[in-house]
Design brief:
The chain has 124 residues and is α+β, with helices and mostly antiparallel strands. It has three helices and four strands, in the order αββββαα. A four-stranded antiparallel sheet has the order 1-2-3-4, with no helix packed on it. The protein is elongated. The termini are far apart.
């Protein structure tokens, strides 16, 4: 039983690390002297040195993706916190429903970012 709980804790921490990495360092478009990610647009030289970085455009769809990623991290942190709270307060044999619901919400919000399509070129 202790091994199972340790595995769940490791899984929670791994999910948090992956969420932070995918939110902070996710480069969507790289090439032709520029790199674009969720938070900024950077122009680079041929040697790979970064010259200028600007904030990403204030598109509504991009702000929605940023918000869902932040919410995903918040729900995942809450899930880990609730897991520890429930671990010490639930009776033996109790279920971790609240923790599971928050972890599912975090996963769903992250998946929204993964499948979200930006505005098409014809709409501009």
């Amino acid at each position: 039983m202790l091994l199972l709980l340790l595995g769940i804790i490791v899984l929670h921490v791994a999910v948090l690390v992956l969420l932070f990495v995918s939110t902070i360092v996710s480069q969507w478009i790289v090439g032709n002297g520029h790199a674009t990610d969720l938070w900024q647009n950077c122009s680079t030289s041929s040697s790979g040195n970064v010259h200028h970085c600007f904030s990403s455009s204030p598109n509504e769809w991009l702000q929605s993706v940023q918000a869902t990623m932040i919410l995903s991290i918040i729900f995942s942190v809450l899930s880990l916190f609730l897991f520890f709270c429930q671990l010490f307060t639930l009776t033996k044999g109790g279920r971790f429903y609240i923790t599971g619901i928050f972890q599912i919400l975090a996963g769903k919000l992250w998946m929204v970012k993964s499948v979200w399509k930006g505005p098409s070129k014809s709409a501009e």
